[in-house]
Amino acid sequence: MSNKVLTIKDLKVKIGDKEILKGLNLELEEGKVHVIMGPNGAGKSTLSKTIVGHYDVEVTGGDITYKGNSIIEAEPEDRALEGIFMSFQHPVEIPGVNNTYFLRTAVNARRTHLGQEELNAAEFLKKMRVLIEELGMKNELISRSLNEGFSGGEKKRNEILQMMMLEPEVIILDEIDSGLDIDALRDVSEGINKMKDGKRSFLVITHYSRILDYIKPDYIHVLKDGQIVDTAGPELVEQLEKEGYAQYEEK
Amino acid sequence: MRLENLNTVDANTLLKELNASSSKLEEAEAFLKLKAPSKKSEAYRYFETDCIVKKDYEIVTPKESTFSSDKDLIIENGKVVSAPSSVTVEIKEFTQTDKEHFDSLYYLSHIICSKVIVISINESLAFNIKHILTTQKDQLLSYRVVVLTKANTHSTIYETIDDKTDQSLVIGGYDITAAKDATVNFVTDRNYSKSGCIVFSNSYRVEENATFNLYTFDYASNNALTLFRAQLQERANFNAKHLLYTRDKAKSGTVSQIIHRGQSSHSNQSTKNILDDNSRGIFDALIKVENSGKYTVAHQNSKAILLNEGAYMASKPQLEIYIDDLEASHGSTTGQLDKAQLLYLQSRGIKVEEAKKMLILGFANEIIDSIDNKEIAEKVHASFETAYYGTPKIECMQTCDTCL
User: DSSP label at A1?
Assistant: First the structure.
């Protein structure tokens, strides 16, 4: 029987005055790839924001437990240090903050949290250079400011680079496929697949099935009007492609 | 001597009070016209003027002596201690003062200083100026530096201050001329003491086709003000970038006038201000385009981050334009750290306090990294980190162009 690494129970969330999540329930199993699909405005991004502790969201009910402990009150950095990672749909640009300096600070913060020794500059760069080559990133990006002037594809690759360097345990990919050309989608997907080790769990939020040609899902969840309204195996994708979300109008 | 008392005397008496030569009569008249700084002075409205005018000071005069040869130009309490052999340094009278300066202390310091330090740059070179200041309670030190460049030369000056002043007043300044077709890069990197009051009042002249790149890095816990007036001749370029970091109860910043006098001259002035505790940042800057300044390009921008509710930014970018054919803009923003950027760093496991520091460093780095001379940029990085963290913090990540 699979372990439940992250459990979301009866989650109710507001952004501003609007209730977005209305009693959402979801369990992420260890080592599995969960995909969330749903129409625009269903609450997909709100769900990912809530898991990482975004300042936009106000949790009005329910709970999220990670490895058995509630994380609802935890600071975003504490969730990250514990192993939750989110790839942002729109990664922010931070001028003046060197990409490598930032990432090494983050990696060493996590290593310290896990009781591991920090990586020195040489060890860190050696590891990072291997990964940037695998991801098809330009070498110059590591000396630039964080995401500043990066193309959409470069930003998404940079998110995956961070994910691979940080080695998280729960990975949330919020529309990682949006704005990617075919080559970038393949490189990004390969990076994600390399992280699959039978223990890490993935929550892939997407509008389109094309990324699922590269990342094989275990479960498809349909999120509509703030709730999970259907859960099934990968076969559900084909059905959704054909019928859309109208079939859930009566549910 | 109390500076506010000088407002009520005539020019000749003023010169007598200050033991100044009668050749300074024009400067004395200019001082009396502008009056000693007060809350009503245009140039000092946001600054703390009591430490300038309402205290009794004893004027300390730099003693003239010989100096040794060294790689750096070292000036200790206004006296040249050493100078590089690549430049000519003389202590002599200077009569070509800026006749239209807006700051009374510019004229006062020229009156007090019977002689100034004149640096003549005759070839392309780079050198450092280090000011050592140790004036004590109730002392008033005034000294001035004149930099004259030769046409077609390219010079870079990196200036630092070792400021150990204590409850004293220092009125200093530069008169710098970038000669025709010359380039002057002037980087000032100043970490001020906690209890002195320092005013640098400068005049820059940028001749035809010359370029003057000014970078000022000011870290203040007390009252320190830089004022300058820059005159741009035909096709002159003037780029000014300022980084200000204030804390405690400091009042500090830049008050400036950039005058576009010649046709097709360009200026670009931008400032970044990081204000902590109950400090006040000042950016009171005018760009004036005269009738003769056709086809001017002039841009001005101020950004400030307030780290504390008690911090305050007095930002006043101004354009005064007398012609139609030009391109000009100005803007000013003051706010907190960007929440989205902060969350992004936190979401990667960086603690909120460390994330804030990282964003501050990034904000400052945008100015520091724009210095072409990478050796100087590294020094400024270290000085900013020392001012901000208390120690140089960021180790080499081997990701610069040299290492890659």
Answer: -
Helices marked H in A114-214 — which ranges? 121-134, 152-166, 182-194
Residue type, A121: A
Q: Are strands A18-29 and A4-15 parallel, antiparallel or unpaired?
A: antiparallel
Q: Which residues of chain A does B359 touch, with a Cβ-Cβ cutoff of 8 Å? A: 94, 97
- The pLDDT tens digits of the residues spanning A233-245 come to 999 998 998 888 8
Cβ of A92 within 8 Å of Cβ of B340? The answer is yes
CA distances for B309 relative to A120, B276, B280, B306, B353, angstroms? 38, 8, 11, 7, 17
CB contact under 8 A, A55 and B343: yes
Is the CB of B344 less than 8 angstroms away from the CB of A142? no
Give how far B346 is from chain A: nearest CA, Å.
4
| Separation CA B177–CA B299 (nearest Å) | 22
Write a three-state SS string for A11-65: EEEEECCEEEEEEEEEEEECCCEEEEECCCCCCHHHHHHHHHCCCCEEEEEEEEE
Chain B residues in contact with chain A using a Cβ-Cβ cutoff of 8 Å: 338-341, 343-352, 354-355, 358-359, 361-366, 369, 394-401, 404
pLDDT > 80? residue B50:
yes
B24-33 long-range contacts (CB < 8 A, ≥24 apart) are B24/B110, B24/B111, B26/B97, B26/B99, B27/B97, B27/B107, B27/B110, B27/B111, B28/B107, B28/B111, B30/B99, B30/B101, B30/B104, B30/B107, B31/B6, B31/B104, B31/B107, B31/B108, B31/B111, B32/B6, B32/B7
Cβ-based neighbours of A124, under 8 Å, separated by 6 or more? A100, A103, A104, A107, A108
- Are B224 and B253 within 8 A, CB to CB? no
Residue A1 in this model has a pLDDT that exceeds 90: no
A53 dihedral zone (left: phi>0; alpha: psi -120 to 50; beta):
left
C-alpha A250/C-alpha B373 separation (Å) is: 68
For residue B375, give the H/E element and its range: helix B374-389
Q: Write out pLDDT tens, residues B289-327.
A: 999 999 999 999 999 999 999 999 999 999 999 999 999
Residue A77 and residue B352: Cβ atoms within 8 Å?
A: yes
- The tokens of B73 are what? 């130009």
